Amino acid sequence: MDERPSELELLAREVTKQARGRKTTKPPQAPALSGGPPDPKKQVQDLKHTLMGLAVLLGGGCWVISLLVDDGTGVDDLDAQIMAQQFVKASLKYPEEASFPWQTPQRSLSEDGIYTIAGQVVGKNAFGMRSRYTYVCRLKFLGGDPFVVTSWQLFALNLVPQ
Q1: Is 46 within the bounds of a domain?
Q2: pLDDT in tens, 93-118
Q3: SS3 state at 17
Q4: CA-angle at 42, arms to 39 and 43, nearest 5°
Q5: Which residues are CB-neighbours of 124 under 8 A, at least 6 positions away?
Q6: C-alpha angle 100/51/65, rounded to 5°?
Q7: What is the DSSP letter of 10?
Q8: Measuring CA to CA, which residue among 98, 119, 109 is closest to residue 141?
Q9: Rounded to whole angstroms, how far apart are CA atoms 67 and 77?
């Protein structure tokens, strides 16, 4: 019998590895106050840096929006991600406690119109303890309202505790 892992299991492992590879760092400490009045030149310089950062973020946001994958039905992979998260919530013991980290899940669209969404969710397990899970969801838009569950067909949902 063939014991090789499925495509979904391999994707779930990859998402888990990426999540474990992230390092958390302490936030930088604020410099001690000098006790004197604020320097107007420094304030202007700080404002310029803030505005430049905001411009980069807004420009980057437009770039990210242009990366959305559309299957020709008017539905994109962000719609599929939202619906995948609804399916994940529904599969948890405590769906109202589910939270999805502020990271973009891996999203792809196959030639036959099936979306594969892989990411992470934090929710309570059967014992009521908060746990982190990796999920891989495969679903297809059937037509109609993209924010109604019956407009989607769920092919597979794997939820693996970390």
Answers
A1: yes
A2: 999 999 998 888 899 999 999 999 99
A3: helix
A4: 85
A5: 92, 93, 94, 97, 130, 131
A6: 40
A7: H
A8: 109
A9: 10
* Whether residue 46 sits in one domain with residue 92: no
Give domain status of residue 19, yes or no.
Answer: no
Q: Would you state the pLDDT for residue 27?
A: 53
pLDDT in tens, 40-99: 656 656 666 666 666 556 655 444 443 455 556 778 889 999 999 999 999 999 999 999
| DSSP designation for 102 | S
Distance of CA 135 to the CA centre of its chain: 11
Return the bridge partners of 115, or none: 109, 139
Domain range for 125: 71-161
* Residues 6+ positions from 78 with CB-CB distance below 8 Å: 68, 107
Residues 109 and 79 in one domain: yes
Asked if the structure places residue 4 within a domain, the reply is: no
Q: What is the domain count for the chain?
A: 2
